[in-house]
Protein 1
Amino acid sequence: MKAASIRRASMDAIVAQAECEFPFECCGFIIGDGSVEEVRPVANIQNRMHAEDAAAFPRDARTAFLMEPKEHLAVMLEVDRRKLAIRAVYHSHPDHDAYFSATDRAQACSFDPSEPDYPDIVYIVTSIRAGKFAHAAAFAWDFEKKEFAETKLTVE
Ligand SMILES: [Zn+2]
């Protein structure tokens, strides 16, 4: 299973964003290739969707995230244009542990419930308690078990 290795600067950026957006979840990507590694925060529009249609979006951004579609697309286009790759998708859990929830799994497998949209990347979840970073964990797709499992997260 794929292990997660990210740079200290990336981790610092993810943690700063998560603390800043507390008590709401934040989200984004780590992109890169070879010597390049960059963080691309994406706005979480879950609160807006919840306000507009609470039946379709019962959770607000305290317990869910939805990436702003144009920002999401801009990252995809940048990755393509610069011939980089998506290394990780990250999001935060305000006042919850850093686990991979059933919702996270469903979101990661948005096209086909039996396979992630990005089977070769890692998913990083940060736990933010009372506005301060508490813990981070990484999850990757186990191709044999066909399920997500926690994997080693190295920050260097
Ligand atoms: Zn989550």
Note: The first helix runs from residue 8 to 21.
Protein 2
Amino acid sequence: MSDTRYLAWPFLADHHRALARELDAWATANIDDAHGSDVDAQCKALVRALGRGGWLRHAIGGTAFGAAADRIDTRAICLIRETLARHSGLADFAFAMQGLGSGAISLDGSPEQKQRYLPRVARGEAISAFALSEPDAGSDVAAMACTARIDGDHAVLDGEKTWISNGGIADFYVVFARSGEAPGARGISAFIVEAGTPGFEIAERIEVIAPHPLARLRFANCRVPLTRRVGKAGEGFKVAMRTLDVFRTSVAAASLGFARRALDEALRRATSRKMFGGVLADFQLTQAKLAQMATTIDSAALLTYRAAWQRDQGQNVTREAAMAKLAATEGAQQVIDAAVQIWGGLGVVSGQPVEKLYREIRALRIYEGATEVQQLIIARELLKDARA
Ligand SMILES: Cc1cc2nc3c(=O)[nH]c(=O)nc-3n(C[C@H](O)[C@H](O)[C@H](O)COP(=O)(O)OP(=O)(O)OC[C@H]3O[C@@H](n4cnc5c(N)ncnc54)[C@H](O)[C@@H]3O)c2cc1C
């Protein structure tokens, strides 16, 4: 296990410290970080393994439905993502998507919806997905065009969603669509659409630089019973934002895991690579890089666990989660780039750990609110206070 001094920080409780240590031991024994050619099969196998290991109980809320706690424990989710990301990007993805995909149900679902989906998500028997983005509505979510027309006791979905993680392998999708109660963000509702529902299809599988299951979805006259609407009609945007409030901080935690792994790899190489009559780590230019990497990681970790702790205290975390995501994702990119530099030519060879990290980190600066969106959120909060 790499540097674990952060586990002593006051943001965490003893059960969090135990969780991180137990998961690290489990991941060492059970996870191989190789990404083979069949990413779907690997992802399904990881979800099942994480379910059997009991880790997915932390991705959902409600002990009556198989969760580890009644309320989603943000610090537990962050520690799990950080630890898994250090071992394997795909394992982190598999865990995170079980939480993000079912988060709306944990937070706003009816008892029947919770009973139908959450226990299977926690056991790793059902794979979930979160379908918000569209070809013309990414950062500008409220521009969404996918519609949900009410017809008797059904909603009829028409339109497209894209960049949907687990698209193609998920058993159910929480889909956000314009239901028209009011203009803009106040006229959106969330629906659970099960794979195989007539009128729903995978329009295209998308390949990205760090392979994960990803797809564009198409809905054409897709009828969904109103009993599958999550939350109230017209309140889907709030449901989406409440879900993202939990998982945005965890994106910062995953970045930390990638960055810690990069620092470990950089230290390993710098202390063993012979050159100029010594090793790479003997040179002050290398030491400056290592010092900067460690400082960037600790600053981001402090922001991440502050945001997670604050949410677990029931406080608003809009500003803090945005700061954590901004600092951790941008910082991890710099740390990983420095690790590639320290590894020299080997750093860009396909399959080397730092080369995989270099591809793995990139999307985290874009999804769940790009860096610029986080900057705007932080500035908006600052100006709100300044103008009050
Ligand atoms: C690997 C991956 C997985 C994803 N998984 C999911 C998923 O499971 N579910 C889902 O719903 N979506 C998912 N997404 C979509 C993701 O949330 C969007 O890609 C993201 O919101 C950005 O939207 P966009 O790609 O349309 O970029 P655009 O909205 O076109 O933005 C392009 C760029 O513009 C910049 N920008 C944005 N706003 C501003 C501004 N106000 N001022 C200045 N610059 C700005 C940013 O740099 C941004 O990267 C995923 C994306 C990726 C890459």
Note: The mean pLDDT is 96.
